[in-house]
Specification:
Layout: H1 3-14, H2 28-40, H3 45-59, H4 70-85, E1 101-107, H5 113-126, E2 132-137, H6 144-155, E3 158-160, H7 168-182, E4 186-191, H8 199-212, E5 216-222, H9 227-239, E6 244-248, H10 257-266, E7 270-274, E8 282-284, H11 287-294, H12 300-310, H13 313-324, H14 330-342, H15 346-350, H16 356-359, H17 368-378, H18 382-386, H19 393-403, H20 407-428, E9 457-459, E10 465-467
Helix pairs in contact: 1-2, 2-3, 3-4, 4-11, 5-6, 7-8, 9-10, 17-19, 19-20
């Protein structure tokens, strides 16, 4: 997400390294680089110009904080201005005072509107403990109704539809009446889209707004369209009472321009960001966290929240105690690895840590490695997983054949698992971390073995781990 923008801004900040103070002269080159980076990211030119001027006004002549590098202070100023540009505070969907909250979704065809409706319903049920109802009112696109029905069935969310013969405004009206009768908390209206903004589309949406009086009208924008997404958002905003925007495909080859421009151009806050294809891949949009990601500061809070959703705290605590006591088994290891995989792609997860995203942007992380580890563990018997010391050469060959791996891969897994148990067992006895993991020289007699380290990493020069 925003890799090219993050990289370009990083180079801009480098121009201020070593400066003793921030002046109009020495930040000029940095500001030019920032402006160039924003324009290349497809940020609206007026927004980019205003942003640069605000950064300049805030930076020039600012009193430096002792022990803080001017370049770091410049980054902090850019961070604050980015947060302000994207809305400052997190915006939420307003709830109805009585009855179900009615949310109308609008957008161009191909923006991922129907999928986003299902993701939002899943989000409301799982995180907000609401009971949502999806209303299939997109009668223009072939199979749109059946697509929503399929998504609803997969997620266990009810869908109201009348086929494709009725009119969208009437379907929405009757869908809301059904929701009131059945006691639903939330109604999401999936309306039709077009390949472009036209009068026919707008009249249909305006008719739905007039007849149903939705509590919120949310526009779904494809972030990969960049400037075009912002332009279409502006046209929708002129005809409809938009209350917010959901940006989709932010995990794709997007340059970030839509995320930075849409609030300033339309005045509507970004409510959610689609960051993947899975139902869970819809994130609440926090301007401060997004600014941190763009500037390479990571998003630790977001990572912790994601971990809380997929990691069983009691199981994790139990496994940690077993690990420190040296009683960790392959069953425990498999369970922990499966929890980590639920967090999402490893590169994406690591990118949420401060400074790590840019460091690994050119490193190819083999996600299939975890699947191969899982296959090897599942090819073991229950007794072998509990007592790895039983696994002799013949058993290793059987595990390799059963999991479709080379024999050496099984050797490596057992060796790494044994070293991990030994290391954490030593920690549990008060020995602390081994010196080689603390960046110190190993004790006399210690020899770092090739390939030693945690699963998923390969030993590099001087024993430092690197990803395969």
């Amino acid at each position: 997400m925003f890799e090219s923008l993050t990289s370009a801004l990083g180079k801009a900040f480098e121009t201020l390294r070593g400066q003793k103070t921030l002046t109009e002269d020495n930040i000029q080159e940095g500001l030019k680089a920032v402006r160039r980076a924003l324009l290349e990211a497809d940020v609206h030119f007026k927004v980019a110009k205003e942003f640069v001027n605000q950064v300049k006004d805030a930076a020039v002549g600012q009193e430096l904080i002792k022990s803080v590098d001017p370049a770091q202070q410049f980054i902090k100023i850019c961070h604050d201005q980015l947060v302000s540009l994207m809305g400052g505070e997190q915006a939420t969907i307003p709830m109805a005072s009585s009855g179900p909250t009615v949310l109308m979704m609008a957008g161009l065809q191909g923006s991922g509107k129907t999928t986003t409706c299902a993701k939002l319903a899943h989000h409301l049920r799982k995180r907000k403990k609401k009971r949502p109802l999806l209303v299939a009112a997109d009668l223009q696109r072939p199979a749109a109704v059946s697509q929503l029905q399929t998504l609803g069935k997969q997620l266990g969310i009810d869908v109201y539809d009348e086929g494709t013969k009725s009119s969208p405004p009437k379907v929405c009206k009757r869908g809301i009446a059904h929701a009131k009768k059945m006691g639903y908390d939330f109604v999401i209206l999936d309306t039709a889209g077009r390949l472009h903004v036209d009068d026919l589309l707008m009249k249909e949406l305006e008719e739905i707004v007039g007849l149903c009086k939705p509590d919120s009208v949310v526009l779904v924008c494809d972030a990969m369209l960049g400037q075009d997404a912002v332009n279409s958002a502006g046209e929708f905003h002129q005809r409809l009472p938009l209350s917010g925007v959901i940006l989709t495909k932010l995990d794709g080859d997007t340059r970030g321009g839509a995320a930075l421009s849409v609030r300033k151009v339309t005045g509507c806050p970004v409510l959610f960001a689609g960051v993947g294809e899975k139902p869970e891949d819809l994130e609440e949009f926090y301007p401060d966290r997004m600014a941190g990601r763009i500037l390479g500061m990571g998003d630790v809070v977001g990572l912790v929240e994601r971990a809380q959703e997929v990691v069983d705290e009691k199981d994790a605590e139990k496994a940690a105690k077993k690990l420190l006591k040296g009683r960790f088994t392959f069953d425990d290891f498999l369970k922990q690895m499966q929890m980590v995989r639920k967090l999402g792609p490893l590169k994406k997860v690591l990118g949420m840590l401060p400074g790590v995203g840019q460091a690994i942007k050119d490193i190819d992380i083999d996600e299939g490695h975890f699947a191969r580890l899982e296959a090897m563990i599942l090819s073991m018997t229950a007794r072998e997983r509990a007592e790895p010391s039983l696994i002799d050469l013949s058993r290793r060959r059987r595990i390799a054949r059963g999991s479709g791996n080379e024999l050496q891969a099984v050797h490596d897994l057992l060796k790494q698992f044994k070293m991990m148990k030994k290391m954490f067992g030593k920690m549990g006895k008060g020995g602390g971390l081994p010196p080689e993991l603390m960046g110190e020289a190993p004790k006399k007699g210690f020899r770092q073995k090739r390939g030693a380290g945690f699963p998923g990493m390969k030993g590099g020069k001087r024993g430092k781990p690197r990803f395969r």
